[in-house]
Design brief:
The structure is a single chain. The protein is of the alpha/beta class. The protein folds into two domains: about 170 residues, 3-Layer(aba) Sandwich (Rossmann fold); about 130 residues, N-(1-d-carboxylethyl)-l-norvaline Dehydrogenase, domain 2, CATH 1.10.1040.10. It is built from eleven helices and eleven strands. Strands 8-9-3-4-2-1-5-6-7-10-11 form an eleven-stranded mixed beta sheet. Helix 2 links the parallel strand 5 and strand 6.
Length: about 300
């Protein structure tokens, strides 16, 4: 019998993944990561695809307190700022099960490495998902989302990718995951700062040359810091990825703008501000002035909204 796939984080991505795996007849349990000790439930979730067709599935939703152990693939789709607390909770439950971090950002795996998890994998997400109303969300894939080992084996990464893969939400194994993590972190640093500050959707970079010019400056700054850490990224490839995502998710709101609009904490600390911290640790903060300004403005905008 196939072991279950536990998805921690019942947000837009977690719910979409649960729907597609359920429709692919794979055993799935969706776990709320921000609340605990509530009754189990079943929820029918509707996903609107890029072509406006819809898919529906009924998914089991539980909390971590319902399980003494998680014997299967454990996928994190929660907000990355919850990883330190989650690492403490999962230590007694996960055993040798592989942990797949389906989050974007830099350094987000560190709490699990510090807690000595035996198998840690990073997945770089190339899809967008947005909650439209309770039980309904809009999902747009961009390309296959690669999964690679941070602490583990390439062979297990291939097995994980095969288990998570569906025709609608595709995954693939990737042996060289770090350059892809950096490329996507740079792209996300652009989307998650410029779009919320302009209060516009992801398609702005394909529509407006000034927005694209600003994006290119941030990309160049961040790529310089990546190189200082020993990871070399091609800025032309990053720009091409930015434009591909901008086109594929035209009309969709980036997660940070959704968070600000809904009075939730953002993940800007693991994007712009983490790159700034890395730059400062190397006495290179002067390289990332625009990246820092945009990150600081998002942090301030979020704080003002939360205090309102």
């Amino acid at each position: 019998m196939t072991k279950p796939i536990y998805i921690l984080g019942a947000g837009a991505i977690g719910k979409a993944l649960a729907v597609f795996l359920t429709l692919d007849h794979k055993p799935v349990v969706l776990l709320r990561s921000s609340i605990d000790n509530v009754a189990r439930s079943r929820e029918t979730i509707q996903v609107i695809r890029s072509d406006n067709t819809t898919l529906d599935a009924t998914v089991d939703i539980s909390t971590l307190s319902d399980f003494q152990e998680l014997d299967g693939i454990v996928v994190l789709t929660n907000k990355s700022y919850g990883n330190e607390k989650l690492a403490q909770i999962l230590t007694a439950k996960i055993g040798h099960s592989p942990l797949v971090i389906l989050q974007n950002g830099l350094g987000i795996e560190q709490p699990f490495l510090d807690a000595n998890f035996s198998a840690v994998y990073r997945c770089v997400l190339f899809a967008t998902s947005q909650v439209i109303s309770p039980g309904k969300l809009r999902f747009k894939p961009v390309s296959e989302s690669p999964i690679g080992a941070v602490k583990g084996s390439d062979e297990v990464a291939e097995e994980i990718a095969a288990q998570l893969n569906t025709s609608i939400f595709p995954f693939k194994a990737e042996r060289a995951i770090q350059p892809i993590i950096w490329k996507k972190a740079i792209v996300n640093s652009v989307f998650n700062s410029i779009c919320p500050l302009l209060d516009v959707d992801n398609g702005v970079f394909q529509r407006d040359d000034r927005a694209l010019s600003m994006a290119k400056r941030v990309i160049n700054e961040c790529a310089t810091i990546a190189a200082e850490t020993g990871v070399y990224v091609n800025t032309d490839e990053v720009v091409a990825s930015l434009l591909a995502i901008s086109s594929a998710s035209d009309g969709q709101l980036i997660s940070t703008l959704q968070d600000i609009n809904n009075n939730r904490r953002t993940e800007i600390d693991t994007l712009n501000l983490e790159i700034v911290r890395l730059a400062a640790s190397m006495n290179k903060e002067y390289v990332v002035t625009e990246t820092k300004l945009l990150g600081d403005l998002i942090s301030l905008k979020s704080a003002l909204r939360l205090r309102a």
